[in-house]
Structures are given as structure tokens and as C-alpha cells.
Amino acid sequence: MSKILIVMSAASIWERTDGSEYPTGYWAEELAAPHEKFVQAGFAVDFASPGGVLQPLDAHSADPEIAGPDCAHYVEHAARALSEFGPLLKLDEIDINDYVAVVIPGGHGPVVDLYKDRDLGRLLTEADAAGKIIGAVCHGPAGLLSAVDENGKWLFAGREMTAFTDEEEQSFGTAEGAPWLLASTLRQKGAKHSGGPAYQAYNVQDRNLFTGQNPASSAPMAEAMIGALK
């Protein structure tokens, strides 16, 4: 059975520019919707993170006023999937040859740790060189920033992609005090970033790279990835 790797952040705190701490964790829909689609399509799914640390749930993703009426399903599915999988794999022990695709879901964690994680950078570089499918949604594309060579050149410069927009960050109330904003930074690094209406599904494919703008884009991203893998 072909396997897909979901890479989670290990961060539970996002430190703000004023020194305050903002609790974060994985966003239920962004983890659960792709996992559910992949399993239904016949793929096995592994979970990994820096150090094998299990990130907590972002409580906002369990609030129907924020995450929508289906959030309870995603919260339950994510919790069950993680529990059944058991201890997360450690990123530094992953062999990308074991997987046909790698996916990075969001929550704010990736802007805390994954954007600079050397092990993730190695995996993404190896995956891209092998033409494997790479997916990232919402704040997950921050993880793509980890893929730099010894000269500091970013692997994904010039590629078309989307991610949580600066406007969505402002609307969510987390732009002010953020150490950096994801969409702006991706553009500054050379990405061809585009976005759609706030909180509506918007997805971009550039060759083997599949990205989604926000939680609503998670399932469509997974479906597009499955289509490419099939």
C-alpha cells in the first residue's frame, strides 16, 4: 500500500513581537480532511513532526463559530487518527523514499518551527527532486521555506502557490504582533503567490506542488493530489 506522510509542527506557542504567547496547535480540518480523503482512496498515512512531538489541537478549530458547523467531525477524526497511529515519527529519521507524497497542514505552528526545520528542508528537497507530490495548506506553506540549499537559495522560488493571506491573518486578529506574515514573506522569497476570497476554497497546482489557501481548501487539495497520484 502506498504511503503519504503528514508533517505536523511541534509548536504549541507562537511568541508575539511584544513577548506575549499565543497558544497554537494543529488545525483540525487541515489535518483531518486530507487524512480522511487519503484513507478513503486507499493510501496509508504516517504522521511525523520535529522530535516526534505531538502538537495539541488549536482550540479555535473546535469552535463552530470560527471553524464552521462541521468542525466537530474534523476534531473527532483527527483525534482518532492520531491516537490510532500512536507516537509520531521523528522528522530526522524519515526516508522520503518510503512515501509517494508529503503534506504539511497548518495552524500557526509552521511559522514557529517548520519554516526553518532542516530535516523538513531535506525531505522536501529530496521529494521535489524525485518528482513526488508535495502538498501544503493554510500556514503549512511556511514549511516550504525550509528547503534552501547551502547557498541559501530557496527551492520553491518562482513556483506558483497559495497560502493563508495577509488579509485573512488581519481578519483573524493575528496579524498585529506577528513576527512575520506568511503570504508577504513567500512573495519576498520569490514565490508567485496568489489568493482568492477570504476563507473560501482556493487551490493552486504548480507541477508536483499542490497548495491550499485556508481550511476550506484542505479537502480540494487532497482530492487534487489523489488525482495526480492515481
From TrEMBL:
<dbReference type="GO" id="GO:0005737">
    <property type="term" value="C:cytoplasm"/>
</dbReference>
<keyword id="KW-0346">Stress response</keyword>
<dbReference type="InterPro" id="IPR050325">
    <property type="entry name" value="Prot/Nucl_acid_deglycase"/>
</dbReference>
<keyword id="KW-0456">Lyase</keyword>
<dbReference type="Pfam" id="PF01965">
    <property type="entry name" value="DJ-1_PfpI"/>
</dbReference>
<protein>
    <submittedName>
        <fullName>ThiJ/PfpI family protein</fullName>
    </submittedName>
</protein>
<comment type="similarity">
    <text>Belongs to the peptidase C56 family. HSP31-like subfamily.</text>
</comment>
<feature type="domain" description="DJ-1/PfpI">
    <location>
        <begin position="30"/>
        <end position="224"/>
    </location>
</feature>
<dbReference type="GO" id="GO:0019243">
    <property type="term" value="P:methylglyoxal catabolic process to D-lactate via S-lactoyl-glutathione"/>
</dbReference>
<dbReference type="InterPro" id="IPR029062">
    <property type="entry name" value="Class_I_gatase-like"/>
</dbReference>
<dbReference type="InterPro" id="IPR002818">
    <property type="entry name" value="DJ-1/PfpI"/>
</dbReference>
<dbReference type="GO" id="GO:0019172">
    <property type="term" value="F:glyoxalase III activity"/>
</dbReference>
